[in-house]
Amino acid sequence: MSDREGHSGVPVDDDLSLPKATVAKMITELLPNDVTCAKETRDLVIECCVEFIHLISSEANEICEQDSKKTIAPEHIIGALKRLGFESFTEEVEDVLKDHKQQQKDREKKVSKLEQSGKTEEELWEEQQRLFAESRAKFESQQQ
Hints:
- The structure is a single chain.
- By secondary structure, this protein is an all-alpha fold.
- It is built from 5 helices and no strands.
- Helix 1 packs across helix 2.
- The longest helix is centred in the last third of the chain and has 30 residues.
- It is flat, with a radius of gyration of 24 Å.
């Protein structure tokens, strides 16, 4: 295995990174107001985060393969965290997963409400245009 290959023998992509502005914003929010973070420090934090993600995803991939699965599932990530000694992270990860699943259910409900309206796309479009026209007329009458 060469230095350019990751844990599973797959070449490592040096171009992978995280959005610098997003990381800088997170760092700023976490630090006290009188403390600043140097650009080099932000870049080091990004490198550490990317390495952590590689480590967890590589371990999760191994667990996934052991389970004879082709897709890494949330339980593979949680298993990887535990195997690598990050048990203290699992509770928060499980909470975030629970919130994510609830958000997905809520999205599905919104879609089904649209489907339950019983109207075609054309009927919905026409109704939307009618509402826009009514709103425009009301606005214009108030301007006079």
